[in-house]
């Protein structure tokens, strides 16, 4: 007997591209319903709730829609993110606000708003951090600060819901192929980055584990295999 895939309905932030898109595509293939929460839609044919993570009213409207129409959701995946390269001292205040909103505070507002639904359905929350949650690099202070905050929030959620049938998974990849690095004008070439579809398959394999097993934190570093 084949065990049905456990996700009935998933809400994914950043489901229009990159890792969020890959997770959405695999969930749809497994028969799950997917709701994409992002500024732009995708070609996957799933429901799209246009949302700007820098805008409180936009987030509130999305949460209100979820509470009205998607109370059967049992998976929330937070994938939205961006990065700008800039030396300390050259970040305009508006850029600071924007980057922290997309990478950290907007995510917190989304999780806080939807968590009652996840808890009621004994579901899972996957939050994508970064290897930058554990380290820092010159020129990416805003991104590193936000991702350190993401790590702290993940650990706080795991502590707060330790006695509930809710699993919180923190995923920290070290760079994967997406528009993220292209838009950030990263000096990393796409061919050295990880495949988001392989990361998505790994994440969903953890979601499919029995409920008495929780993968709390996973760090995936890029590794360049030796030639020959």
Characterise the protein shown here.
The protein has 6 helices and 7 strands, in the order βαββαβαβαβααβ. The protein is α/β, with parallel strands linked by helices. β4, α3 and β5 form a beta-alpha-beta unit.
Write a concise keyword list for the protein shown above:
about 230 residues, alpha/beta, Rossmann fold, seven-stranded parallel sheet, 6 helices, 7 strands
Q: What integer is the average pLDDT?
A: 89
What fraction, in percent, of the residue positions are helical?
25-40%
Which strands sit side by side, in order, in the main sheet? 3-2-1-4-5-6-7
Number of helices: 6
Cα-atom radius of gyration: 17 Å
Report the top-level CATH class.
Alpha Beta
| N-to-C series of helices and strands | EHEEHEHEHEHHE
> What is the fourth-level CATH superfamily?
NAD(P)-binding Rossmann-like Domain
CATH domain topology: Rossmann fold
Structural class: alpha/beta
Task: Name the poorly predicted regions.
Answer: none
Q: What is the count of β-strands?
A: 7
Span of the ends, CA to CA: 43 Å
CATH architecture name: 3-Layer(aba) Sandwich
Describe the biggest sheet? Answer: 7 strands, parallel
Strand proportion: 15-25%
Overall geometric form: globular
- Domains (count): 1
Question: Helices and strands in order, then pairings?
Answer:
Blueprint: E1 9-13, H1 18-29, E2 33-38, E3 47-50, H2 56-69, E4 75-78, H3 93-120, E5 124-128, H4 141-160, E6 167-173, H5 179-183, H6 196-207, E7 217-220
Parallel strand pairs: 1-2, 1-4, 2-3, 4-5, 5-6, 6-7
Helix pairs in contact: 1-6, 2-3, 3-4
